[in-house]
Input
Amino acid sequence: MSELTVRPSVSVECKVPFFDCDPLFVVWHGRYFEYMARARAELMASLDLDVPQVRALGYRMYITDARCRYMFPMHYGDDIRVTAQLIRSTPLIKVAYDLRNVTHDRRTARASTTLATTDAAGVFLNDTPLPIRERLERMEPEP
Output
């Protein structure tokens, strides 16, 4: 299944720390990917695909593409929410993100990452392996 009918999602919230900001107290653009990585890690863990579980299955996952569209800044001390949503499970895994500046009630960015799977030796697999796909696709439909 390339497009998922049920799209699992997870949101994480945090307050922007000082060390993520430039001298103008604006979050440096590269930090957005760290916030997305937190949300993606939570999403994958919720699907029983945390790093140790993926490794135990004999696989590895790597980001092959990352895109971000910035819309409104995040500043030191702002409360933010990052939602990660699984969009596709095969042939590659795609996760979409919505980043919100909760303090200002504004969307701050939209983004996506694409993950490829390899075997334990690092050999690229053309399709997401069945044991991983089963975990990605086993979500119950929402009522």
